[in-house]
Design a protein that fits this description.
One of its GO terms (molecular function) is NAD binding. The protein has two domains: 199 residues, Isopropylmalate Dehydrogenase (3-Layer(aba) Sandwich), CATH 3.40.718; 104 residues, no CATH class. Helices cover 40% and strands 21% of the residues.
Length: 335
C-alpha cells in the first residue's frame, strides 16, 4: 500500500540532504510516494509568499511532512516559518532524541540516550504582544502558559516514556523565579505525574539541568519542559552527541506531524555536496516510527550507525572526506 507524504526541500543545503534522504528511503522499499511543496525563500521566489496555501493544503491532506531547513533571519525580517507551521497545525509536541553515535566529535561517544520533549506552541515563542517603544529603547513580549498546554505536553512525555520502555521523566522549570508561568507548568506536571506511578518523576531547575547535562548526561532519560527552555536544552543535548548534524526533530499534533533536521540552512556550503544528511535521515526514522513502521525505522538507524562505525564516506563535520551523496551511498549499501 502506497502512502503519500509532503516533502519540503527547504533552503540552502536543504535540497541536497533531502535528495540523499529520499534516495535512502526509496532503497528501503517502503511504499512511500512524495508530494513536493515549497516553503521559505524558494516559495517566496517562485510564488511570492513564504508559506503558500498550497503547501498548507498538502500537509493538511497528507498529515505527514518531511522538511529540510528553512531560512529564518536573525533579529529582523520575516518571522520563523517553522513557528508559523507549528501554530497553524497545533503541533504541540517537539520531540528531539539525543543518542551517542560512534566516531563523532563528541565528549560522550557512548552512554547518552535521552529525549527532550518540548512544548511547541506557547510560552516565549508565541510572540504575543511583541512591540518596541517609539524611542526604540524598550521591547516587550507576553509569555503565556496554559494549564491545557502544560498538561498535554507532560502527558505526551509520560506516554512516550511508557510506550518506549523508558523509566524516568525529568520536569525542567524555573518556578523558583517565574512563579506564575513556570509555576503553573510545574504544578500541572506534578498532577499529571501522579497518573503514572510506573514512571519515576523528578524535577530540576533549568540552570541546574544544563549543568547536570554537561557533567552527567547519563542520568537523564526523558526531559519535558516549556518552549524556550526546550529549544536551548535540546541544542545542548545535540552538542553532547556530536552536533546538530546528528539532531533530528519531530513536531507532533493531533491532525498532522512534521519531521525535520533541526540545523540551519548553512548557505555557506550550499550546493557543494558537503552537508551531512544524518539529521534528516534520523528525522525520517522518527517519521517511520510515527507511521507504525518501527522495524524499518530501526533498520535505517542501524545502517547509519554501521556507516559511522566503518568511517565510510563520512562528511567533513564527522572527520571524513565524503560528500552528501557518497555518505548516502554508503548507508544504502548497508541497507
Amino acid at each position: 500500500m502506497t502512502q503519500t507524504i509532503t516533502v519540503i526541500r527547504g533552503d540552502g543545503i536543504g535540497p541536497e540532504i533531502m535528495e540523499a534522504t529520499l534516495r535512502v528511503l526509496d532503497t528501503m522499499g517502503l511504499g512511500l510516494s512524495y508530494e513536493f511543496a515549497d516553503a521559505g525563500l524558494t516559495a517566496l521566489e517562485s510564488q511570492g509568499e513564504l508559506l503558500p496555501a498550497s503547501t498548507m493544503d498538502s500537509i493538511r491532506r497528507n498529515r505527514i511532512a518531511l522538511k529540510s531547513p528553512l531560512t529564518t533571519p536573525v533579529g529582523e525580517g520575516f518571522s520563523s516559518i517553522n513557528v508559523e507551521m507549528r501554530k497553524r497545525f497545533d503541533l504541540y509536541a517537539n520531540v528531539r532524541p539525543a543518542k551517542s553515535f560512534p566516531n563523532t566529535k563528541s565528549r560522550f561517544p557512548s552512554g547518552i540516550d535521552l529525549v527532550t520533549v518540548r512544548e511547541n506552541t506557547e510560552g516565549a515563542y508565541s510572540a504575543e504582544g511583541q512591540q518596541v517603544s517609539e524611542d526604540g529603547e524598550t521591547a516587550t513580549s507576553i509569555t503565556r502558559t496554559t494549564r491545557r498546554g502544560s498538561e498535554r505536553i507532560v502527558r505526551y512525555a509520560f506516554e512516550l516514556a511508557r510506550r518506549t520502555g523508558r523509566r524516568k521523566v525529568t520536569v525542567v522549570h524555573k518556578a523558583n523565579i517565574l512563579k506564575s508561568t513556570s509555576g503553573l507548568f510545574l504544578k500541572t506536571a506534578r498532577t499529571v505525574a501522579q497518573e503514572y506511578p510506573d514512571i519515576e518523576c523528578n524535577e530540576m531547575i533549568v540552570d541546574n539541568c544544563c549543568m547536570q547535562l554537561v557533567m552527567r548526561p547519563e542520568q537523564f532519560d526523558v526531559i519535558v519542559t516549556t518552549n524556550l527552555f526546550g529549544d536551548i536544552i535540546s541544542d545542548l543535548c545535540a552538542g553532547l552527541v556530536g552536533g546538530l548534524g546528528l539532531a533530528p526533530g519531530a513536531n507532533i499534533g493531533t491532525d498532522a506531524a512534521i519531521f525535520e533536521a533541526v540545523h540551519g540552512t548553512a548557505p555557506d556550503i550550499a550546493g557543494q555536496g558537503k552537508a551531512n544528511p544524518c539529521a534528516l535521515l534520523l528525522a525520517a526514522a522518527q517519521m517511520l516510527d510515527h507511521m507504525g513502521k518501527v522495524d524499518d525505522a530501526e533498520r535505517l538507524r542501524r545502517a547509519i550507525i554501521a556507516t559511522l562505525e566503518a568511517k565510510d564516506s563520512l562528511t567533513a563535520d564527522l572527520g571524513g572526506t565524503g560528500s552528501t551523496g557518497t555518505f548516502a551511498d554508503a548507508i544504502i549499501r548497508r541497507l
